[in-house]
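Sequence in, structure out. First:
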Amino acid sequence: MEQNKTLATNLKISNFPFEITDNNGNEIYYEGFHGYWVKEEFNQNNERIYFEDSFANIRYNKSKTLAKQLKINNFSFEINDNNGNRIYLENCNGFWYKQEFNQYNQKIYYESSNGLIYDNKPKTLATQLKINKFPFHIIDDNENIIYYEFSDGFWYKREIDQNNKEIYFETSNGTIFDYKPKTR
């Protein structure tokens, strides 16, 4: 399949919506006339185990739930973080959700067993720019590396003053060195 073309475009399909179902009648591919598409996979019990769509490339994998892995039979099963935020909940029907919170206790990620994903985690510069060749770096006019990112998401950024001295350094793991002149 050619990159950036949908399945229907590559197959020269012109009747929409275009749908493909598996032998059990599960819709495994859907595409609308506007280019929006969904891909899904189902296990032998007709449970969705994979979901992806053209908007956010959301991936959803259903496997053994955490409570099943831990052999927990007393529901609802909940896990809270050190700040009291519920980061995991599972009920007796197998429904679960997990959440992540930032340092300000604001929800930045939510995922549930029904496929709903809300992702507001900070994105790296390479992710925002859709860069996939690493290491990725930005150089200023004086040939100083002012941003550098590795394929694992680790990055650092620097500020250089007019005398070519580093006045600020920050990494993705929270290290900051700030040598900027302080104003009163």
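Second:
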Amino acid sequence: MRYRIRSFIACIVAFSTTGIAVAGTLQVNGLSISYPDGLEAQAREAAEAASEVLLPLRAEFAALRTAMAEPQAVAGRIAGLLGAPEQAGTIADNLDHFSPMSQALEGLFSDWRIFRRSELVATGGLREGPVSIVYDAQSDKLTWEVSFGSDQRLTGRAFLLLIVNAEGEFCIGDDHGLEEHIAHSVEGLAGFSVAALHEVTECAMAVGLGLHHPYARWFNEGVSNWVAFQVGREYAPLLAVVFLSCCLPTDADQPVRGSMNLFSWPQKTYANQAIPQSGEGNERLLYAASTELIQQVLREQPPDALAEIIGRLKSTRNPSTKAICAAVQATTGVDCWELLLDYAPEDVRNGIREGRAPALYSEAKEKALRGDYSGAIDLLESAIEIGPSDPDAHLCLAWALRKVGGREEEAEGHVRMVVALLRSSGGGRVAPCAAEDTEMIYLLGRISQHAGQLSRARELFGAVLQRDPDHKAARSALAELDDQGAATGP
């Protein structure tokens, strides 16, 4: 749900002393709207919008917050849907972590504040509390920043910030009017309110149940949203419906649906490590597609269908997409693999059906060994889109990326993916496409280092420096090993 929460963060700030004079306060149905001199009409307009859209959700938010304050029942429901009652205690502890967020959001129903844009520009924005509004003079833009406490909790009481321009019109975020701002607030409130259910479900799946294959993110995200909706609607049905609608593809997504690929969508742990993917930059759509897919799988299934699917997977640590789809079909009769193919570009679908990835890898390896690294990179990226779980392809791509130069960060991301894939498969070894090349020896050293085989890593980096004493990356890696040794002690 992070993609929806970001837009909502732009709507809230924690209580702060701004130095901007308040001329009056309008009280409506328990909501206080403060405003500067001359903006009472705008305050009344905001009050009308609040009464129609946001305030009717107050009782539902209160009910959900009450349930979260005593999380054992909610945790038990989540654990039951997952078929993992042993996880209920951990889920309850994790839910408790989100309590300060619920407290912060209470202010959205009781405290709204209107500011002139010129006043925020003059003061440089609002700089206190977990969310800050900062004015950038060079671009003449107001931007939004969020910071959490040392324990990563959103703390402090929030209020809704409304901005009015020189013409007296609402201009939230410099480009949104009041109606759109309120709509985003409702979406964001639903997202924040129900997101805790998603997050604790995802954690239980990945950590507690060992369902965290590097390329099965579609399952983790889709199931977590499905569980969050099922549990959320028991306490806050309207908020849950808004939450779900925010988590599904829209008509506006149709032009770009053909560019996404759920097969090659890496888990968050690896998505932040410079590994490109089909449809990169459209993560919101990937979330939405995953939710839609799981909705299709579990629609009209008995309540314990998900628990049975997960039960079939428990014996397999970090099951792959193929294993998950087999469990889904055995439980529900739904051909999940065929459904997944609808969430991949046409060339990837054809490549999967024809088993084209090994041939692409073989051709890429030949090109790389002849020195055509750019051509090899193109083929390897295509091979990984079709068959993303091949560690040899990731290693060969990392090597080619280092050989062309300037793409070392991407190469490191693929090295880490090699380690993750080997761990997911329970071990194994890679087959380097150029075992005697200095850069490949360096990469094998990095794999050993990330896998915790530090002696082997030191040996390989030493071999690199014997061949090339000026190899900066190998020397830096050895320094990292020295630091690791110093940190762990004798």
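Remark: Residues 349-434 form a domain with the Serine Threonine Protein Phosphatase 5, Tetratricopeptide repeat fold (CATH 1.25.40.10).
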